[in-house]
Amino acid sequence: MPSTLPDGDPAPPDGSLPPNAVDGADARVFGVYIHVPYCRVRCGYCDFNTYTASELGPGAARSDYAAQVEAELGFGAEVLRRAGLPDRPVSTVFFGGGTPTLLPAGDLARMLSRVRDEWGLAPGAEVTTEANPDSVDAAYLRGLADAGFTRVSFGMQSSVPRTLAVLDRTHSPDRVPLVVGWARDAGLQVSLDLIYGTPGETLEDWSASIEAALACEPDHLSAYALIVEPGTKLAAQIRRGEVAAPDDDLHAEMYELADRRFAEAGFAWYEISNWSRAGVLGGASTTRSRHNLAYWQGADWWGAGPGAHSHVGGTRWWNVKHPRAYADRIAAGVSPAHAREVLDAETRRTERILLETRIADGLPLEVLAASERRAVPELIAEGLVDGRAALGAGGSEPRVVPTLRGRLLADTIVHRLLG
């Protein structure tokens, strides 16, 4: 089953926000995340808040889900209005899961339409859905594009059948080029998600997956190291000795190989696990996931759906996990939030250091206290931080930007800065 929700303070039934949530809101972009908690099968490595049909009882019908999310979006818009938040059109919308594309395309369109009705979409808004390669066809993808979606992120994971089998993925490798082609024909940007370090996966296997992904000519690539989460099927298999535990040294080799090949193919990293194709507009790649980047840059977003997390002006909250409990809250007209936390100024600064030292845009040096800045020369000397960026080469603002080695040791940078 999915992991447990974190503890926190009680969340107000009416969703009300503290007065300081308004502070600085004009300078923050606003996005919407919609969680769709359904999957055809549960992958052995996954501890996301997802459910197969056999795990759902009465009161959690998929056919009712779009209406429930629409109701939460209306509730959310009212919460933000009552809090005095300025009118901000939505810059990014992201449908994640689970497998959002297990729902009819019309249901995704309904939820997106409600976002548009409540807040409006900013010009050039990015609208993404995740999808499994075997959960869509050409007509479905055309339907998404017609509804206003601009981007689709396919869970490719690997091109090697035995690796896909270990991960319990249900698609075949030859399906990926097909769906990428259909998405392109529909006018959608395409991202491919890869996982490396699966038990039994060799460097040669990983290289084959990289080349297969590049051959599809996507706009964006994500590559995540496999993490063995407690309570998953994979964790039990490793505990019983049925498969080998991931190897950290091999993980590092795989990351370095991916970064090198992606760069050779014209992709630039912008967050430790994400690369975008060259295409510059206003100094940034036009194929970066702006929704992803907004998380790392402390933006505001409303997260709708079971287990979804939200953040507005330093207040974070997370919804009840189970779709039936979520449906009950929505039907009662109260906030679906399970709990929340209100961050003080120092905690927000600490989190900013943790997040912005992961991205290519870096952390402005001025955010660090004088005592923290003293660690920067040593991090440069050890090859963890880019010296030119820290010195403000070319007249740019001095920033802490991790090197390739620093990306592999990102936690070390944070620990050293914060002492």
TrEMBL record:
SMART domains registered for this protein in UniProt: Elp3
Name of the protein: Heme chaperone HemW
Matching Pfam families: Radical_SAM
Family the entry assigns: Belongs to the anaerobic coproporphyrinogen-III oxidase family. HemW subfamily.
NCBIfam families per the UniProt record, alphabetical: hemN_rel (TIGR00539)
Disordered, as annotated region: 1-20
Lineage: Bacteria, Bacillati, Actinomycetota, Actinomycetes, Micrococcales
GO cellular component, one term: cytoplasm
